[in-house]
Structures are given as structure tokens and as C-alpha cells.
Specification:
The chain is mostly helical. Helix content is 49%, strand content 0%. The protein contains six helices and no strands. α3 packs antiparallel against α5.
Length: 200
């Protein structure tokens, strides 16, 4: 490049990046300036796909979300590798230079895709692609207790005793008729219930 006033190819990319960043910042600034500011309870609430947010957000997600995301990511990366392979493989100059080039690239991609297909079949056979696994396996433990002992325990009738409140130590020795209601022990804790929407 003889003329130093001209931009290099990298300079053009930098210029495009700067202009793009400025346009994004300008549109965000215009939106902040021109948008009406009328906050309401609905606008300030957490958006949860149209559903009303209830309870705590600290919940456990199903692990199948991560498995399906990993499988998707695996095949997404596969496509990223296939695009440049197909671009280079399509050049007639490479194939005309050496006839073995086409077979080499074909075998290379067959090995790459074959490994991914083996992984997909493995995940499929394990049932990890199904949201609910159809086979529920009940764990069995080998013990030396005969099954007749469990059957006898299940057939037995157990008496149900009536509930009696705990007495204070001073009146524990006295008869239940002479103990007034005030001497019965209260629960060790007092449950507190928080109304929804109130601060703790």
C-alpha cells in the first residue's frame, strides 16, 4: 500500500466495530431518554414467561436440562467444524493437485462424524434424551432376613395410643385428674407464618 492515508484491512474492521458500538450505544441512549417512565407494580415485578412469580428463585432444576444442552452444544460445534471442511473440500485446485486429497478429507470427516454418532447412540440408549425415563429400577439389597419376617411385621396390628400433653416436672408425679390445664407444657417453639408480599 503506497498511500499512507488509506486504511488497512484491519483498520476497516476496527472502524466498522467502532461505528457499530456507537450505533448500539446511541439507540440505547435514545430509548432511555424518550421512553415514558410510569412504574407500576406489574412493571417492577419479575417477568417469568408471563407467569406470576411465586416463591423463592432458589430451586433445583432438572438435570436433564444440562444433558440436552450439552448434546446440543456438541452437535453445534460439529457444524462449526463441517463448514470450513466443506469450503476447503470444494476447491477444485486441491482435488486436481492430488487425487488422494478428496478421499483423505472424506475419511477424516467420516471418522469425526462417526465418533459423534457413537456418542449420540450411547446417550440415546441410556435414555438421557427422554425427559422421563421409562424404566424405573427398584434397588434391591441382599440381606439375610427372610421375607416371612417382613410379612409378619406387615400383618401385625399395632395399638394406637392417645395423645397426652407433656407435664411439667413438678406435677409429673401427680395424677392426671389433679393437674390443672395451666401446668401443661407449651410447645418449645412458636410457629410464625409470613404473609405473602410482606418483608421479613
Amino acid at each position: 500500500m503506497d498511500d499512507p492515508a488509506q486504511l488497512t484491512e484491519f483498520g476497516k474492521i476496527l472502524l466498522i466495530g467502532i461505528v457499530g458500538a456507537l450505533m448500539v450505544l446511541l439507540t440505547l441512549l435514545l430509548g432511555k431518554i424518550t421512553s415514558p417512565k410510569k412504574p407500576t407494580v406489574e412493571k417492577l415485578s419479575t417477568y417469568e414467561c408471563g407467569e406470576e412469580a411465586m416463591g423463592s428463585s432458589w430451586i433445583q432444576f432438572n438435570a436433564r436440562f444440562y444433558v440436552i444442552a450439552l448434546v446440543f452444544l456438541l452437535f453445534d460445534v460439529e457444524l462449526i467444524f463441517i463448514f470450513p471442511w466443506a469450503t476447503i473440500f470444494g476447491h477444485a485446485e486441491f482435488i486436481s493437485a492430488d487425487a488422494r486429497w478428496g478421499w483423505f478429507t472424506l475419511a477424516e470427516m467420516a471418522v469425526f462424524v462417526g465418533i459423534l454418532i457413537v456418542g449420540l447412540v450411547y446417550v440415546w440408549r441410556k435414555g438421557d434424551l427422554e425427559w422421563i425415563k421409562p424404566k424405573v429400577v427398584t434397588p434391591r439389597v441382599q440381606v439375610n432376613i427372610p421375607s416371612s419376617a417382613y410379612d409378619r411385621l406387615n400383618r401385625m396390628q399395632y395399638p394406637v395410643r392417645s395423645f397426652e400433653p407433656l407435664r411439667s416436672p413438678e406435677t409429673a408425679s401427680a395424677s392426671s385428674d389433679s393437674v390443672p390445664a395451666e401446668t401443661t407444657k407449651k410447645p418449645a417453639f412458636k410457629p410464625r407464618f409470613k404473609k405473602p408480599g410482606t418483608a421479613s
